[in-house]
């Protein structure tokens, strides 16, 4: 199997194709605004919404860098700041999810139409070419999807959504 095919499969499993872990689109499907904001008492954990903001930050930044649109990329003073929420409204929760799904799919399209040279060229502001960055972003997504599932379970919002 070639690298591009493998990465496309990994990328899809993070959003809408169930593999060894549930895809984020399915996990977020029934998460309410209140559940998105919830954090366990006495725990230094991020909320579901904060995790989605964090994933969106890195995927959007990479997409814009790959496209050469660095003037529009999101900025943060440090990693902790990438978890920052917009104004806490139901509308902004919905917008965050929609933007994340859009950016994730745009990265998938970018990878799908990339030629070999595109996949291995150095991306401005990054240490790795597309092929390695997409691998890292997929692994990063899988890690945080696990956290989102755990937070859902802790709230009783996870109702056996697995297909197996």
Brief overview, please?
The protein has 164 residues and is mainly α. It has seven helices and no strands.
Description:
This protein is mainly α and 164 residues long. Helices cover 59% and strands 0% of the residues. It is built from 7 helices and no strands. It has helices at residues 3-15, 24-28, 33-37, 48-66, 90-113, 116-120, 130-154. The longest helix has 25 residues, at 130-154. It starts with a helix and ends in a 10-residue tail after the last helix. The mean pLDDT is 90.
Query: Which shape, going by the Cα principal axes?
Result: globular
- Structural class comes to mainly alpha
Largest sheet: none
Poorly predicted residue ranges? none
Alpha plus pi helix count: 7
State the helical fraction: 55-70%
How far is it from the N-terminal to the C-terminal residue, by CA? 26 Å
How large, in whole angstroms, is the Cα Rg?
16 Å
Strand percentage lies at under 5%
Number of strands: 0
Instruction: Work out the oligomeric state of the chains in this entry.
Output: single chain
What are the secondary-structure elements, in order, as H or E? Answer: HHHHHHH
Mean pLDDT: 90
